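Newbie here. two chains, one complex. Structure please?
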Amino acid sequence: MTLFERGQFGRIRLHVLPTKRFKTFAISLFAGRVLAEDTVTETALIPFVLRRGTAATPETKAFRERLDDLYGAGFGFDVYKRGDSQIVQFRMDVINDQFVSSNTPLLAASLGLLGEVLTEPLLENGAFSRKYVDAEKVTLTKRLESIVNDKIRYAAERCVEEMCANEPYRLHPLGKLAAIEGITPQSLFKQYKTWLGEAALDLYVVGDTTLEEVTAYVRDAFKLADGAATSYPAADVTHQVREVHTVVERMDVTQGKLNLGLRTGVAYGDDDYAAALMYNGVLGGYPHSKLFLNVREKESLAYYAASRLDGHKGICTVQSGIEIENYEKAVKIIREQLESMRQGELSELEMSQTKAMIANHLRELQDSAYEMIAYDFNAVLSGKERSAEKLLEQVQAVTAADIVRVAQNVQLDTIYYLRDRKEA
Amino acid sequence: MQPLEYKGVQETLYREVLDNGLEVIVLPKEGFHKTYATFSTKYGSVDNWFAVGDGEAVKVPDGIAHFLEHKMFEEPTGDIFATFASQGASANAFTSFDRTVYLFSATEQIPANIETLINFVQNPYFTDTNVDKEKGIIEQEINMYKDNADWRVYFGLIDALYHTHPVHIDIAGTVESIYQIDKETLYRCYETFYHPSNMLLFVVGGVDAKEVFELVRRNQAAKNFKPQGEIRRLFEEEPTSVKTPHKVTKLPVSLPKCMFGFKEKNTGLSSEELLRQEVTSKLMLDVLFGPSSALYEELYESQLISDSFGTEYNANPGYAFSVLGGDTPNPEQLLARVKAAIEQALESGLDETAFERSKRKKIGGYLRMLNSPESIAGEFTRYRFRDSDMFDVLPLYESCTLEQANARLLEHFDFNQLAVSIVEKPEA
């Protein structure tokens, strides 16, 4: 397996994977800070404003033309939460020069642009541009309001929000609607300076390059104050459930969305993480899993019925779309699957199929630059170095007893149901 | 097995048409761990009226191609997902307007997985019971899409554009139409469209081309397919005009969703003309409406659009149309502004600098796509079923001239051919 070369420039940790397998350079910059109610909204708004223009290229149209001129370099950002952190990720994707005729090295130009975006924003009177801040406040508002448009996602997010009502994790990574109005170009700029000064910064590059080359480009492009790199705090995944919290919400929907939130007590860095992966896989990760077979294939109750593991928060969630009146039936069947996991009703076949699927996933992520980056970033986040090969070995070694041990600590925390408005 | 070398993008494909008519393409990707394979039939939701050779024409219920896709996964021995899982492969399938695609990706047991893929698709197993059981599942799939505002606004637009062409029918059909489906009709469609001569196998990834061809040849030689006459796909005549100029759907959404499109008047182009039309239209749309266009900035500044605004172009032998739009607080105002911009462009033509920039962008986008085995297999098959070659797209972008793009602009934007689809929240 090809390995990331590690370096450092000031507060930025550098991770470079030299490879000739791709026709592009893939670049990701992660900036993470503690997820907290009083900073979540401004932190979310920062990348929206930064992408509008830089000191050297103040106009958005000109900024986007610069990207187009780099053979349509991809540029995007995302804001999400992992464990107890809020992470802003910038992503760039640019063609390897050998396929096109270009005057400037495209990797240098791309890192130059990213450095400008992050460290040399457009300023007016010592603050962000009012025009851009105002416009992006509207955009962020629309984004938060539009969450309800996608009912599958809305239900999934509401379930976690209810489940983590007393933890920072209840917060949406894009922040709170009510907090947007009060943001000013001055307050946001102040928050930006704090963010840039304290965030954990990791820059990844995958492509036909070297650590030396990337370090040289970064030195030219990122105008950051010196200091030590910040690391991520360990997430606390212990949580005692007293009683199952049930929430029913009504809306004009045709299909009911049923979501269950479970506490696994296992974190990404724990020794039992491989067993937790197996638990999720046997329960609902795949089309051969218990949820798919019992909720969909046996009972024809749903088109989708699956589970997902969030290792950084120690949460496993179950989601399904059902006929409104099948709520009790579906909950009963899903709870039966959870119970059968606890009882150790795990066949040899379920074990071997799930291991083969997880193994396939861990091997094939090496064919995608961004997936390799995402996998490696897990180590940065959790402080746990564990290569995909190592995790694969651990998964292969998981026994039924290991899964039962995990299953017996899994606690059902929340049942969330989004249904129609008709009263029963 | 014949090598097809594409030097500019450093890729070599291998192609062979087997005796039974099956077309096989292999694209080895050095250094890749995974292999991705698709087994596709040129059979989609629009193929609901057909005949074979000089046989009698038959009309089948809407949504049957998709229903068939679901049912193929069931074998007498059980669910085929289980077999794939035991072999470490992640399998799936999808149905679109013009094709049904079965696929897997795996890093191990590649020969076994390729055989499983071919064998399960070539082994239909429908019973009255298993067909009935599937109806409940598909009903929930249809209901899931009913609640999906993005899906509804998009398919609402196609429904507004077309009177009779079956592209306007939902791919999964309706709850009513799927309950009319029985095993006899499924077998009939299967026999017609799953004949090897109507199918394409595409394998891309860390494979040896020669080994793949040997395996597929051996597998197919052991099976008996009677030669089949030509499939005739029948369509009612589609009027030139749009069906519903303005269509509104009510759903709980935070902001209205508005999509609009122009329906092409000329259909029945040769595959070559169609490909050029697609490439030129996409370029032209990007110059006028892309994120670095003057109009985009103006609409964003006046809060009429958000990041969701975009365009696409769909070109097929029987139907072709553009799609523009996204979320907007005011669909009428958005339309008026876009119309004004189009009128101005019709007068003045496209800006040359912007055109050259869009070209570079499209070329870069195309090369980026070649990083993804999934995209290569998908795009190659899509173009192949239209008798075109995906690798012709890059030279077409490179050679496209401003004059061609301007001619396309004049031809495409005819306001009589415009339809609008809006999803907005119900009155309180």
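Moderator note: The mean pLDDT of chain A is 95. Residues 348-364 of chain A form the longest helix (17 residues). Thread marked as resolved.
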